[in-house]
C-alpha cells in the first residue's frame, strides 16, 4: 500500500505540446492541412507514401525489414560483424519495387547452413510466381548473380520467392539445447541491379518555397479527398541536383479513384517542363483519390543522386470558397462551486461483446445492463492500446501512447506530464486510486495526483495473485467514510477479476462454467502448448471453449461487485451526485484471429471496449450513442463535468457533446501497440479499420467494420486507393510526435524494478 508517489529521476517531456496544432484539426473532425479551395501538396508531403525503386537490401538492418514478408528470422550479426537474417523453412518471400522495364541482374551474398552432413544447398528464385533461375551455393559467404527477365516484372511492387532444397535445425548449443528454428540460408545482402547501397535521397520540400523534390525512379503517392470539379496544377518542373535533364527525362502523373480501374499515367517531358500546367480531374462529386508522381531519369542523369523539382503543386476545387469561417470559440465555462463526484470503475480485460448491453446472449452482466439502461452507452468505444499500462496512461493523461511514451513493460509515466487526478486535485477534489494490477503502480508513476493510492498487490511477491473486486470496493468504502463530505471526490478503481488466469469463485464457476477444467486457466502460449500436450484428445477449439466459459464466470463475479458498489453509493446518498464511468482498458482474444489473451494484436476484440457513462443530472439516460468514442475522451469529459478547462493540446472530446448530439458523427480513432517485439498501429475511420504491423513481419490489413464486424476479410489489396488514403491519415496523426522524446526512454528503463517486471511477465506480457 502506498499513499505517495514513488520518487523517480526527472525526465524531459515536451512532445504533447507539439501535438496541439495537428490534434486540434483531428479533434474537430477535419482533415489535417486541408483548405477547401486549395490543397498545397508540398505541405502534404509528410503524409504521402514514398516508394523508391528497390536497388539494394542490407539484410539484418531495420531498413530492409519492411521488404521481408515471410520465412525470415530476426536481425542478427555474424561473428559480431556482419548483419544478416536467416531464411527459414522451405521458402522465404520478399517484395521489391521496379519501375524500369526490361531485364536486370540480381546480385546476392549468402551462405548455407554450416553442417558437415548437409547436402549442397540450392536456391530456386521465383518472381511473381514464375521461376527465373536456380543457384547452387558454395560454403561460407559468397556473392552470386542471376539475370531477371523483364517479362516477369510488373511496374511497381513485385514479389520474390526463394525456395530451398533443404533446411535443418542448427547444431545444438553448448548446453545441448537444439536450435528450434528451421534454418536454410544466411543472407547478407541482395542487390537489384546494384552491388552497393545507392546514394538516393528521399523527397523533401525544396529550397524553393512551395516546391517538392522527387528523386529519379521514386514514386510519391498523395491520398486525398478531392472536391468536385477539382484540377491539379503546378508552375514548373525543373532539374534537381543535375545541370541538365537530357533526353528521356520525364514526370509521370497518374490519378486513380477509389473503386475505379487503374488509370493510364500522363507523361510530361521537355519542353513542357518550364510551363505552368492545369489538369482537370473531371470528378463530379467528392471522392477519394491517389495522385502519383514518378520521376524518370534522362540518359545523361544519375538516377541515384538527382531528380526533378515540381514547383507549387496544388489541387484546386472549382466553386469552393477560399477558406472558411473560423469555428466559433467555445463558450467559456464558469467554474463550478462544487463539481460532481466522479467514479471511474475500470474492469481490466473486459470485452464489450461479452456484456448483455452490447449484445451478448449469456445472462452474465445483469448489474451492468441495468446500470446502462439508466446511463449513456457508447456503442463504438475504442481503446488506445492493446495492453493495460499504455491504455490506462492514455485515460489518465488524455494523450495517445506515442505522446505519453508509456509503451513497454519497463516504461513509466514521465514526471513532466500532468495527470487527471493532479488536475482535479488542483480544483479542490479529493482523490483516491486503487489498483489490483501491478502494471498500474506507484513505481510506474500512476500514484501522482492521488491523495491516497492503494496497491492491492505486493510488488515483490511471486507468483502474482490479484486481489478480488471485493477488496477494491472495501478500499473505496473505507475512504468514503473518512473523507471530507463537503468536497467532491474522484476515485479511480482498477479491478482485475476478468484478467487471466481464469479462476472465478466456485459459485460462479458452478453457474457459468460447470464443465470447464479449472486447471486450464492460463491462456499464455506456453500454458496452451502444455495443456494440449498433456491432453491428447484436447483441441484448440475445446481449450478455447474452456477459457471462454471461465472468462464469462469471472465477468459475472465482477458484474455482481459493480452492482454492490452502486448500491453503497445509493445508501450513502452519493449516487445522484456522482458521475459514474464504467470502462475497460482492452479486450481479450479467444482464437478470433488465431490468438489467445492480449498484448499482441489490435483487432476489434481487443480495441472495442465497454464505455457506459451516467451523468448526475440524468441527461442522456438510456441513450445509445453510435458516434465513435475513445479513451482519450475521458479526461476532457471529467474535467468538463468538474467545471475545469481542458488544455487545447488534448485530442479528446467531452462525451456529453456526443451523448446530446442529434446526429451521428464520424471521427478518426488511432491506437498503438509496442510491446515485447510487437509494433502495430491502428486507425478506425469512416467505418473502416486499418492495421499496420511494423514488427514482426510488416503487413497491412483493412476491414470494413459495417459489412465484416468480425474482421475476417482483409481488403488491403496492393494498390488500393482507400488503403493508401487511410495510411496517409494515420501518418498525419503520427506526424509531429517525436517517439524518441516521449519521456526520454533511456531514463525511463530503470524506473521499474525487476520484481515488478517479473509480475508483469507472470501476467503474460512476455
Record the strand order, biggest sheet. Answer: 29-28-30-25-31-34-26-35
Task: Predict the CATH topology of the largest domain.
Answer: Alkaline Phosphatase, subunit A
**Average pLDDT level:** 85
- Whole-number total of structural domains: 3
Termini Cα gap: 26 Å
Uncertain runs: 1-36, 320-337, 738-750
Helix content: 10-25%
| Total count of strands | 40
According to CATH, the homologous superfamily of the largest domain is: Alkaline Phosphatase, subunit A
CATH architecture term of the largest domain: 3-Layer(aba) Sandwich
Supply the number of helical segments: 17
Tertiary shape: globular
Beta-strand content: 25-35%
Sheet/helix structural class: alpha+beta
Question: So what's the CATH class of the largest domain?
Answer: Alpha Beta
- Largest sheet properties: 8 strands, mixed
Radius of gyration: 29 Å
